[in-house]
Q: What sequence folds into this?
């Protein structure tokens, strides 16, 4: 149980790029990182508008000399300091992730980056290589993977309680773009243009979360072939607002993934069901404190977060006891806690520890980019099967 | 509200082939047909074993001279009588449906046949043609389509309350075959052999129900292209025990259909979600008295069977008032009631009425066979897209 | 599993009083009794209007000479016949139950009576005595008690799986009378007048169902003391439209019962939770195919009707297999099946069998009347505790 | 929407008594208070063991000279400072709340105290009087009342959307004490002794939460009379482990409240249903992001936290958008945010603002104590009705 203790033995010295005033995602990053003092926010370049960024940094209590107008300046100045930042979170528009991540890695800093990591797999591989070669932690914020019941699912599967894994059905399907929202809310327009959002809208935005959830629950999962049918239901949309993907994975595992922005009446709609030869599990991100565990031939069981019968590794991140609901903030906090633990281990060069320690990392981020690339390629060929290596 | 009144002005004179002693499906047919006196059971050839069939017919109260040892005899003898049967239900093994249906139609009888109607689309077309040309009603027992909330869904969609229809996600995915059940229960073996079950196991057995549900809720739905990936997870199985089908339909409607016998921990698992540009509906056959109605931007509504706010056509088949659950027997009863109404209209040659009166008919049965044939063809080509005409 | 077999070795010769044309409850009685030929409907006095009753009887296929204009005539004429009826169902207005039941018993007939059995416990005792002394079966239609999962609950409790029983929380709380429905639907007025409905509206109408459910699940349950607070929320109502009852039972079991007609937004609302020292069970009559089984310290389990893991006595009345929903009609059918079995045993004078065979009987009906009487008495004394013997 | 902004214009200077190392409730207080910088933790006497308290304060980053060994010292020293604390949270054992609260108020500090506020209503009144006379804010941590959907319920009711309020059914019923836990976990023993826990176990511990929830949702709710039946199911328990309370409130509102520690299989079990003449609402604290809104005669609606259709005052505290679950930490954060706003207003002596600004305050805490006192008195008289003034 977490009662305010840091994950690592110390707080990580931390800066942010983006996520400025009024940004909800910036707030979520800070809420998660600062929780239980896993990170200390001591520098930041929070805004594309330098002055606004500096003002906001001050509001957040960053000392004046470390409130920066742009990230390059931050990297330059922090590098000169003995107490310079060790890690940077990047919460800027998608199109800038690659460039900023690269610069941070080259500056010898650990990175936490929003997803999608970048727009091409080539770029992603480069970032992964840079991180690996420089012994740097590179976390990607697949924020759902920190839920306690996701850990529980992972444990059940790793223990073989489901038997051999056969099927994964997963979706992230909301309805906000069912109508012509880009006309009503111009701020939402960028998501639908390849220039700003990359080669895909809904798969890149949320389909990658669903795929990552599958990877998290089923360790070792790899795509071998996939096919993807994309649709553009909203009039005049350049990028897809709905997509269905069928995936052949290693060990004969078959996956059906649905990503949608036009699933009318659904708010968020992230669900996953993993079917094994003995049992299935099912999880719905909107009721994250419950995990259905369905053993064939037995009564369905509803596992509850925090309950005594869960695996120790799940309960380790418990903050409040069974029956009291945790939410998405706790999931993010758990993820950032893992980032801090990994960064601390890297700074001690504890490769032994890092070999088995799991957190949503640049490799998984790169896999997400590869997944989207393959989906786009499949769709272009008329939703044909394409190999993924 | 139905308070015991027949659907038509009279009871239909009815015989059965198959569905003998110990057959659960035979019992379900009789429960549905005899309810509210929509049919009178006056003849039958209930068993492959003539004497057992005759004995069972007597048990059911059929008069001695109309208890037959085989269906050919029944057709022959009944044809000689003034008060001979008008309609026959066929509840025999799948491989015999075509032959018996054909004989019944040729004898000038209305037919109700279990699904799958037959093994090839060619045969199905022939049956459809025979029925049409002879002004005979040919019902196929898609037994879920009679639920009151299915009618309600159909009405909402027909009224445009969902806007334009975009997506259909449907599944019929149970877990009974997750383990090696064919070894434990030899009686289940026939389902896995093409000789007895036709070219497909799970798609023919239950996938056709899911597709039919889609057709029922979205009138006018047609397959244009589909692709199907089949799996055989159980060792040594000839036919598929799991299948995923993606379907491009008319008007840009896209459908994702999952049929499974290895969905561990699930009993029945028939669900359907229809997504329109304004709203979605969702129905789960295991909780059939509720229909989720989700208007984008509004609170989800749970519509209840029997409630005053439903459409009149839905409430027409209500037997017990809102809050009191109806089940699958009522769904079947409603279906058989429709068969009786249609047969009565056909006997009066009321083509005007029949033009708009809906019941699960031979055309829909033939569409089911075509659907399975296309799925098998797609799978054989490596889950490639195939056109369906 | 029931596949059309009668419960007893023969069908019971049966007549009805009341439940005429347009009566939904009459339809439900016939649907249940005639199912699987447990009863043969061969006589009836279905209506207060003799001619309407006779016409309706003919419609139902009763032979002309046994279509009666009133129940007295029916008792008189049937008594003269060798093939006269053995059993009568009474589905008339509440105020007539006592008189007709008594007459039927005195005519040596088995009785099935709607609840409330009568208006006073004195009358109820007299009926119980009459039935017992004459070796007659007297069933009372507590129609929810026939659900398969109610049997399962009873078995779990009888087996000690819940430990010692401590608490029962039960409700039957719908909302139809939240507004001034008696003005909008004059047909509903009688329920609110003591002259027609007896000393209580909502407790007599549905609270007795809830209490009976408790008795059914927890065999041997007895009231020792109770207190009842009644309310009349609708303006000008003579009888209560809402009531809360606290009950001290034998063995320290405590029960909290809520009956309501003004529970806005709820259709039916019958729920029961039984809490034991080791586990609880919970059942909701609107989703009758599921039973929550909650062992303290373990994950909640959802037991499913028809599943292989249920007790044999529960599965005995299964008609359709797990995953296919049954509804209220099946519950009633199971109840009537038990009536037939009991009547058949009584006609063979098999007292040994009847000693342990359970069905909702006149004693339980009398307990319901006593319960209501005690509630009314408590409320009159300002919701004071009253002893119940 | 909250994106990291403080509730008030400034952070409140804050100290804590109790809630030391290993205390989960202490952690929850700090998580809530420090969120969004509503409070600055600058002093503390965290432990009954002075040195352990001082060490823990240091761990939390409190400056060395403000880490105190006991609360008296803290009050004394802080009073001498210009930058002394303005507010204190008390998270000590129940028996000490009165004494410490009083001392803090006398020292001119705002107070946040755990519930139960104290053991007698006389003490509670004294505290309320002290706070009022000295213009001090006194918050009581009814931590569930901060949930966004609780605010939404309050708004719906205040707007008259439910019509006139008639019934409140509420429960807080968990199962942890079903077995002899006091033997297995000696740390839980104190709850069952009047010396440590006050005159009641389960009503004081959680029943007060349920009653407070009722008060929060239905503004102006007052108890006029109540009756309470307590049980001690666990062998040898001095205090009750289960209680049922019936409450007659102002305006004819009737409330049925159940508090339990022996509700086997339930984790937390806080539920509330408020029934009005037009509609009901229902909320379950374990799925706090949904609120059922049931208008009589219409389909049930499931309102979702964060949705655009909620009242502005509900959405004001939104941190993450609809579909992303919030949990109990957010509820506590919202409550502490209200404390900060109130304290800030009090320090500006803005009585006008405070007149209408709601937060769970000492008056509500005192009402909770009065409620428990009345329950205990009723139970002693054999669960008789007692007046409450």
A:
């Amino acid at each position: 149980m977490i009662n305010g203790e840091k994950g690592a033995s110390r707080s990580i010295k931390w800066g942010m790029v983006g996520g400025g005033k009024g940004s909800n995602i910036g707030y979520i990053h800070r809420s998660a990182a600062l929780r239980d003092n896993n990170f200390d926010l001591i520098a930041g370049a929070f805004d594309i508008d330098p002055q606004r960024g500096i003002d906001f940094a001050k509001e957040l209590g960053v000392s004046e000399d470390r409130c920066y107008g742009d990230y390059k300046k931050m990297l330059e100045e922090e590098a000169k300091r003995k107490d310079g930042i060790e890690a940077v979170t990047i919460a800027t528009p998608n199109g800038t992730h690659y460039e900023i991540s690269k610069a941070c890695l080259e500056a010898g800093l650990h990175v936490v980056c929003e997803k999608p990591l970048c727009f091409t797999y080539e770029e992603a591989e480069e970032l992964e290589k840079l991180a690996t070669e420089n012994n740097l932690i590179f976390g990607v914020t697949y924020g759902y993977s920190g839920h306690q019941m996701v850990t529980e699912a992972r444990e059940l599967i790793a223990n073989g309680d489901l038997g051999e894994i056969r099927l994964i059905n997963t979706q992230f399907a909301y309805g906000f773009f069912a109508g012509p929202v880009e006309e009503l809310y111009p701020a939402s327009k960028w998501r639908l243009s390849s220039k700003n959002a990359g080669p895909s809208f809904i798969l890149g935005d949320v389909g990658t979360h669903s795929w990552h959830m599958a990877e998290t629950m089923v360790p070792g999962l790899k795509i071998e072939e996939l096919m993807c049918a994309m649709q553009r239901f909203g009039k005049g949309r350049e990028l897809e607002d709905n997509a269905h993907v069928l995936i052949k994975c290693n060990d004969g595992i078959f996956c059906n993934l649905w990503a949608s922005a036009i699933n009318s009446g659904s708010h968020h709609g992230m669900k996953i069901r993993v079917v094994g030869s003995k049992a299935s599990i099912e999880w719905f991100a909107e009721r994250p404190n419950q995990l259905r565990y369905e053993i064939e031939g037995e009564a369905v069981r509803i596992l509850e977060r925090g309950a005594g019968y869960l695996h120790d590794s799940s309960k380790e991140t418990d903050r409040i006891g069974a029956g009291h609901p945790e939410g998405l903030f706790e999931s993010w906090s758990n993820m950032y806690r893992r980032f801090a633990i990994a960064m601390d281990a890297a700074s001690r060069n504890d490769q032994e520890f890092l070999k088995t320690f799991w957190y949503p990392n640049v490799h998984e981020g790169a896999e997400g980019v590869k997944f989207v690339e393959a989906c786009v390629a499949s769709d272009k060929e008329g939703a044909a099967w394409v190999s993924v290596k």
User: Anything to note?
Assistant: Chain D has a mean pLDDT of 96. DSSP finds 13 helices and 14 strands in chain D. Residues 328-347 of chain D form the longest helix (20 residues). The radius of gyration of chain D is 21 Å.
